[in-house]
Structure formats: C-alpha cells, structure tokens
UniProtKB/TrEMBL annotation:
This is HD/PDEase domain-containing protein. PANTHER family: HD_PDEASE DOMAIN-CONTAINING PROTEIN, SUPERFAMILY HYDROLASE, PUTATIVE (AFU_ORTHOLOGUE AFUA_1G03035)-RELATED. It holds the Pfam family HD. SMART domains: HDc. InterPro entries: HD/PDEase_dom, HD_domain. Residues 26-164 form the HD/PDEase domain. It comes from the Eukaryota. Transmembrane segments: none annotated. SUPFAM superfamilies: HD-domain/PDEase-like.
Amino acid sequence: MSSNTDPQQLFASMSTFVTACMANHDPSHNPAHVHRVVSLARRILQAEQLLSSTSYDPTTVNLAALLHDIGDRKYVTHVAEAAGGNDDALDPKKMVKHALLAHGADEGLAEKVQTIVSHVSYTTECADPAKVKELIAGGYPELAIVQDADRLDAIGAVGIGRCFTFLGAQGQKFVAKGAAWEMGNSIEHFGDKLERLEGMMKTQTGWKMAKVRTERLREFRSWWEEEVSLASTYDIQQ
C-alpha cells in the first residue's frame, strides 16, 4: 500500500489485524470490546462536533479506538505472537505505529495514533494525569474521545459483564498468593476503579453517558450487597 491509503481501506485492513491479534483474548478484551469502543467513539465524536469548537480528525479517532488495546500489558504476548516482525513489532510502545506503517499509513498519522494509544489507559493516566491533559490540549484532542469511549465500555451493564468475565479469566493473577478467589473481588473493583471513571470523563457527551452507566453500577452493587447480606445470616455450622 502507498502512504495515500484510503482511510476506509486502512481501517478495514487494521480491523483484520486487530481481530488476528486479539483472537485468543478472553471476552473482556476481545474484538467485540474493541468494536464497541469504536462505535462509542464515533457517537461521541459526532456529538462533540456539534457541541465543541475543538477540531477532531475522524481517521485518528477511528484508528486509535480500534487499536487502543494493542500493547495492553495484560495481553501483550498474544499480540506479539500475531504481529511478528522486528523489535518494533514486539515493543508495546511501538506496536501500533509499526502495524500502521506496515499497512500503508503515513508516518505522521502512525505516530499520532501511537501516542494516543499509549496514553488511553486508566493506569497510565493515574501515573501522570498532567501528561494526559497536556496531550489533549497540545494537539491530541482525539485522546479525550478514545479515553471516554473505552471507559464507557467498562461501566454500565456491559462493564459489569466484562468485570466478572475478566475475574474468571485473569483474576487469580491479581489476588495475593493463597488468598481466596471470589466473585466479590469484582464488586470491590467497582469501588476501587469503575465508579471513579465518571469523574475522569473528558467530553461533555462522555460524561453524560457515564453518569447513566455509573448509576447502573451502583444499583447492581446495592443488589449484590443485599443478596450477600441475606446469605451471610446462615450459619454453615448449624
């Protein structure tokens, strides 16, 4: 492909790449998650273009949303196996740029999408929130949309499903050695992270959507606590 690859053709090509990379991921971070994030990003973009004077590049939004989990430390070995190639293909900080260049994207677009993808995650933002603000204000406004879209898929009914799915697939790695591995670990994650995401939304559209989905999290947690409380009144020794 030339550097003048049509955006739709590039997106289709990268979508095939993402599906191959994530084929062995558990359902909490599989291609279906990615395509929900793309859809959410497009919805936010459409709304923000009417609400805000900020100029967004749709191609950057689409590609960054599509590729946002490539290089995720939790799954990077799966992606590396699918990507193959040189050291850049195996480096989480360069994977996206390498893949885009290999599929015909120009250098500037590949670099921009890589920068956005490298700063989407909650953990990365918590480590350096000032950097994320700096990027959004300094030429990477698309980061705000992609972050919001990814975080919206972590909350609400879908987020609850993903949370329990991730616990079942990966949870044992995150509990202390010898500690019990329980469904309640997912509920703890609600308070530790998921219910905080509403306050980290960057766009007006994302915030409004997050408000609704966060309320669903809280209501589910209240149901959970009620049912667990009823069960805990039973003395197993009797």
